[in-house]
Here is the input.
Amino acid sequence: MQLKPIQDQVAVVVGATSGIGRATALQFAEQGAKVVVSGRSETKLASLMDEMRSLPGEATPIVAEVADFNQVKAIADKAIDVYGRIDTWVHTPATAVFAPFEQTTPDEFKRIVEVSLLGQAYGAMAALPHLKQGGGALIHISSVEGTRALPLQSAYGASKHGIEGFLEALRVELKHEKAPVSVTSIRPAVINTPFWNNGLTRLGVQPAGPPPYYDPRLVADAVLYTATHPTRDFIVGDAGRAVDLIQRISPALMDTILLQIGFPMQDSRRPKSEDDPNNLYESVSDPKHNRIDGDYSHLVAPSVLDWVDKNPMLKWGALVSLAAIFALTQGIREGS
Ligand SMILES: NC(=O)c1ccc[n+]([C@@H]2O[C@H](COP(=O)([O-])OP(=O)(O)OC[C@H]3O[C@@H](n4cnc5c(N)ncnc54)[C@H](OP(=O)(O)O)[C@@H]3O)[C@@H](O)[C@H]2O)c1
Here is the structure.
């Protein structure tokens, strides 16, 4: 399947006003794409549009709430009205309540699933008819929590597992009908975005992710890579790859690890009340949230394997070299 170069693309970024979505929208525009950007907050969208004006690409904003299918469909309709097609759809929005499962109310659990799982399914439903017409990429921002949920984030973890479930079915259905659509799940590890400021917390503190944190621009890089190179899934952050591997080998071992680190490492020691502003039902209006980065820049680490994954020739070359060295050493040992 051939995907267009970024500068020839019409890309839709849902949830573009902060964090990963904002970094992604800006990278598309930097590389000359036409970008439809969406979020709930008009003021956050206006601040993003200001930033995009100086970039080579074009941008069109639209306010939308992703828990409402008609509003998600309106994003696709806007892209068709203005640019005539959609080449890539990137769906980012999610929200979380940081609390033990037993302190999460039924309404909160429902709302998180509506935004973080149903919203993603609505995105795929709105985008697919258009992507199938001319071919393109459907990219969902899931999480390493799509394979391994953290304690204190049960509804969020359930939503991320749900994304992986519907994408697995959809991917095979599209292959079965030979539809020219690449379906990608991007699964970031812990990323330094306002996500950690936005969630409702019942922990008495601002939530934190188990470090290291990774730069949101690394996730945007992965999105642009998968928008041009059909990719099934892409983990962002070496720590995420380690979690994924341990979980596949032994979920019980991962339980033991999370029992030790899963609670203290989500405690930032910065007091925060559950009554403080959060984005569960509406956008947080504080303009300091109109940004890519979160509060944990001092804990950001580089990720080596992201680069390797974007250079598959190098990856296979390294694996073949390792196999050759192993075979050679075995031969020398047997010969001596
Ligand atoms: N940060 C991490 O550590 C991390 C790790 C793994 C995966 N992820 C995933 O990455 C994605 C982006 O998260 P982020 O870290 O960039 O968080 P973020 O900074 O909180 O960004 C969330 C974006 O989604 C939008 N949004 C939230 N609720 C919405 C709703 N109901 N309707 C429409 N738009 C809504 C927000 O816009 P408005 O405020 O304008 O509504 C904002 O643009 C999420 O799927 C998250 O699960 C994040």
Residues 106-134 form the longest helix (29 residues). The radius of gyration is 20 Å. The chain has a mean pLDDT of 95. The pocket of NAP is lined by residues 15-21, 39-41, 44, 64-67, 92-95, 115, 141, 143, 188, 190-191, 193-195, 198, 209, 279, 283 (CB under 6 Å).
